[in-house]
Amino acid sequence: MEFLNRMQKLAQWVRSQNLRSLSKNVGKCAPFVGSVLVCAFVTPKPVATASTETAEEGDSSPGASFSSGIRSDRFLEQPGVCAPASGRVVSLRNPTRFSREHAYLMQQLARVGDIMSNGEAVSQLHDFGFPHVEILAAPKSRFHAVVGWNETSAVVAFRGTRTWQQGFSNGAFLPRAAKTAALPGLMHRGFLDEYEAGREVLLPLLQERLPDWGVREVVLVGHSRGGVLAQMTAMELALQQRLQVRAVYTFGQPRAGDRVFREASVRRMGSRYFRVEHVDDLTPQVPPSAAGARFAADLVSERLPGARRALRSLVRELGFAHTAGRAFALDPQQGTLKKVRSSLKREKSVYEKLSHVIRLSNYRNMFEELSRYGSLHQPESYLCDLAAEI
């Protein structure tokens, strides 16, 4: 039995070698060439599955490491990047094990999708240990994604809201069903329009070309609307068995769909989906959820009861549900990054703060406060607040 186990491990090693490294190291397996040829080249290779079973927090099993060079000391000279307050270097090994350090690195990776210079984005992914990079854009769409990969692993960073045109499409929230994507339920029209245009150039790369080149796993990241695109992509990739979605990290992600969409997201991604939300960031709470319709209605003056009722009915009719995934609230004042226990309470807290701001009698103070809330949504704000307690 021990002999067979050794043969299996040796066969796995042989399959992992390219022709050049195999010829260089052939002496290591010379005594077993006959057995290895049968095991390694006749037995079909196992393929990665999209099972919802993932490594548990703290998992240090042999398959837990993620092949990359994502380290905090490889991007500190870039503008707007905050170094860990302690000065120590942190690196990414197991993305399914959530930590403040991993969130910090993933937010930096998400920023790659927002870099306007293609050359700079390529250079940074090279520094992160992904020598192959492809930048994807869809015709007649503002879809933009940066894909990097090495021999076994890949990352995809989706661009968030960077232009006024994208901001306008964010307001196209009337839900609709998918036309081409395998996504159930009703979804935010603006986000879905962009995803269905982008999937035509993205999925052939992820589902066909990368697995053919030996890539087995992928991590998806995105800030703001980029987080929604990461979520939708992961949901479709979960239906195939060639490229495993290792983890999804989003930052300041708005809501994307109804209850059916949310439940499908939970089934397909399980505990591999992590969301980080600043405690005072308004974006993750829009559009308002059907369950929290009364909180949105409270934004209207009590002297307009009819308008309050109409808004409450409209929000319930739209039917947006709380976003799936494991949410963590980032609070820089307390220096904490805590798991969100109740999405409804989080929504209530944010809308109560917003209601207080829009009722300020001094309009200058009101706009200053709204501007402050808007600045908290910026990628640099998330990155620096995460770095402050590392």
- The CATH H-level homologous superfamily of the largest domain: Alpha/Beta hydrolase fold, catalytic domain
The end-to-end span amounts to 47 Å
Briefly note the CATH topology name of the largest domain. Answer: Rossmann fold
The SS-based structural class is: alpha/beta
CATH C-level class of the largest domain is Alpha Beta
Shape: globular
Please give a quick description of this structure:
With 390 residues, this protein is an alpha/beta fold. 43% of the residues lie in helices and 14% in strands.
Please render the helix and strand layout as text.
Blueprint: H1 2-16, H2 19-24, H3 33-42, H4 100-114, H5 118-127, E1 132-137, E2 144-149, E3 153-158, H6 164-170, E4 175-177, E5 186-188, H7 189-212, E6 217-223, H8 225-237, E7 244-251, H9 259-269, E8 273-278, H10 293-297, H11 305-318, E9 326-331, E10 336-339, H12 343-358, H13 363-375, H14 379-387
Parallel strand pairs: 3-6, 6-7, 7-8, 8-9
Antiparallel strand pairs: 1-2, 2-3, 4-5, 9-10
List keywords for this structure.
two-stranded antiparallel ribbon, eight-stranded mixed sheet, 390 residues, disordered N terminus, alpha/beta, 14% strand, Rossmann fold, 14 helices
Question: Would you write up a description of this structure?
Answer:
- With 390 residues, the chain is of the alpha/beta class.
- The protein has two domains: 2-42, no CATH class; 62-387, Alpha/Beta hydrolase fold, catalytic domain (Rossmann fold).
- Helices cover 43% and strands 14% of the residues.
- The protein has 14 helices and ten strands.
- A hairpin with a 3-residue loop joins strand 2 (144-149) and strand 3 (153-158).
- The longest helix has 24 residues, at 189-212.
- The protein is globular and about 65 Å long.
- The chain starts with a helix and ends with a helix.
